[in-house]
Structure prediction request, 119 residues.
Amino acid sequence: QVQLVESGGGLVQAGGSLRLSCARSGRTSNSYVMGWFRQAPGKEREFVAASSRADSSTYLADSVKGRFTISRDDARNILYLQMNTLKPEDTAVYYCAAARLDIATPDYWGQGTQVTVSS
Prediction:
């Protein structure tokens, strides 16, 4: 089992910044692909960002490119999402996810953290 616990969400004004953290524990491996998803009210969960240690690659959704950065500290088993220039449309519950192979089909999910961006 793998446990994922997000933190860092909150209320911020448009143009502001937040940094989300995801602490990973349990039967975990640094080889996992780690990622962030989000779900806004009335919408489906969508991919935001991913980090693959296998090839040192990062992936970002087009909607957050240039504003969000994903990083990981494998020594501490923490995944980060730095969110800058936040917009009201970024308002959502943000979920951390871990996948053995493909982040499109995560094996584990965190409980989510609320991010609210006011205009």
